[in-house]
Every structure is written in C-alpha cells, then in structure tokens.
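Hi R.,

As promised on Friday, here is the backbone we talked about, encoded as structure tokens. Could you run it through your design pipeline when you get a chance and send me back a sequence?
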C-alpha cells in the first residue's frame, strides 16, 4: 500500500474508532484485521519484505493499534495466555521475548491487570510506542541494570526483555530465525542462572480465528547455555507458526 493511501486509510479507520466506545475498539480492530490481513499477504507476495516475528494478521492488527495510539484513543486489550498458570499473580519474573509489535498489546494487558511491568530500554519515553499513562517502569541499560532487575523481580515485578539485535557485534551469538540472522548476548541467561530468578519465554500472536494468544514457556534447563538453546527453539517455533 502506497504511503499516501496507507495514511489516508489509517486516518479513516482512526476516525471510525473515535465513534466506537472504548470497550469495543479492540474487538472492532480484531474483526477488521481478520478481514483485511489478506491485503498484507498480497503485498508480501508483490515484494514487501516479510517480518520474522509478525505475520500478515499481526501486521494488520498492529497497524490499527498504532493508529489508535497515535490518536490517543484508549482501548481494552483482550488476549488468552497459554498456559495461564505460568503467569503467577504476585510473582516476579524475567519475560524474555524479541522485538515484536504484538508485545504492545501484551504489555498493555498486563498493566490493565495492575501488574508491575518494567522494560530495559535506552528510550527516555515509551508513550509513543505503548500509549500514555500506562505506568510502565523504565530501566536504563547501564552498569546497574542487573542489580535493578534483580531487586524489582524479587519485589514482584515483571521485567520484559527483548533480546534480539539485528547487527553483529563483538561477543554476540549469531542465530538464524526464519530467513534472517539475529544476534544475541547470553549475559541475561547467565544472570538469571546466578540470581535464581524465574524466567518465562513469551511469544504473542494472532491465531486463525483472530484471537490474540500469548504463548508462555518456562525453560526446563538450568544451565545458561541450554536455557539459551531452549529460548532460540521457542522463538523459531513461534516464527514458523506465523507462516503455517
């Protein structure tokens, strides 16, 4: 979709969202994305680059969600956590994911349930990406980051970490996921092992019925190297499901 047409379409949809009650906006976006995602699939066939962690359904849904955020329109996210029992109500954990657009819905859902959520990020503000007044806590990636993470997890916070890096750097491990190469540091896994902190792998996506599903997995391995391999397998499996 050409940028001008894309912006006009986005503004038209956002205008419709304005007249939609807050409680119904998210469901309306889900129904709309379910009907329109074949347009994204067609664009990918015509040469638009695919995304490893977002299929056509996810790309269309997040286009609509980002329009709501740009227009400062609030909404009530709905999703299903599988398996739900892994997300203990008052227990802190490291949530290990990758840079996925669908994480916006996941993090907003957690905050709606009054979970304390922290993000490791260099960005001074996350309002544009996640919306205003969410109460997300920011941890700068400095020399004290791991101390901050350990303290907050023990206080019951959920620490969301997107570990993938697109460009190679010294000391990073190269991993192929889908048809792209990503680079990861294994420091987080060694830190989790030393600190004894709970770890959950996270992969949000849309299923064929148009429902948001957040897949969770607790690593079985205790050794950092094996935990890293489990994480990579989990991400590869999630990316493959988007193309099934």
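Update: got your reply. Pasting your designed sequence below so it's all in one thread:
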């Amino acid at each position: 979709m050409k940028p001008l047409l894309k912006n006009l379409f986005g503004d038209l949809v956002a205008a419709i969202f304005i007249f939609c009650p807050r409680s119904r906006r998210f469901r309306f976006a889900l129904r709309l994305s379910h009907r329109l995602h074949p347009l994204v699939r067609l664009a990918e066939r015509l040469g638009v680059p695919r995304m490893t962690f977002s299929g056509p359904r996810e790309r269309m849904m997040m286009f609509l969600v980002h329009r709501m955020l740009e227009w400062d329109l609030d909404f009530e996210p709905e999703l299903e956590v599988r398996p739900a029992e892994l997300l203990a109500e008052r227990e802190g954990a490291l949530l290990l994911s990758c840079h996925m657009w669908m994480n916006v819905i996941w993090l907003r859902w957690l905050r709606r349930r009054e979970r304390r959520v922290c993000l490791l990020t260099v960005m001074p503000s996350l309002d544009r990406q996640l919306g205003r007044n969410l109460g997300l806590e920011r941890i700068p990636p400095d020399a004290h980051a791991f101390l901050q993470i350990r303290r907050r997890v023990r206080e019951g916070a959920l620490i969301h970490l997107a570990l993938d890096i697109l460009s190679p750097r010294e000391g990073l491990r190269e991993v192929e996921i889908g048809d792209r190469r990503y680079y990861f540091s294994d420091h987080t896994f060694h830190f989790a092992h030393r600190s004894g902190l709970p770890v959950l792998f996270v992969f949000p996506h849309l299923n064929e019925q148009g429902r948001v599903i957040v897949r969770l997995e607790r690593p079985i391995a205790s050794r950092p190297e094996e935990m890293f391999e489990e994480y990579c397998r989990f991400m590869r499996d999630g990316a493959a499901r988007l193309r099934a």
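One thing I noticed while checking it: Residues 33 and 243 are 17 Å apart (CA to CA).

Thanks again,
M.
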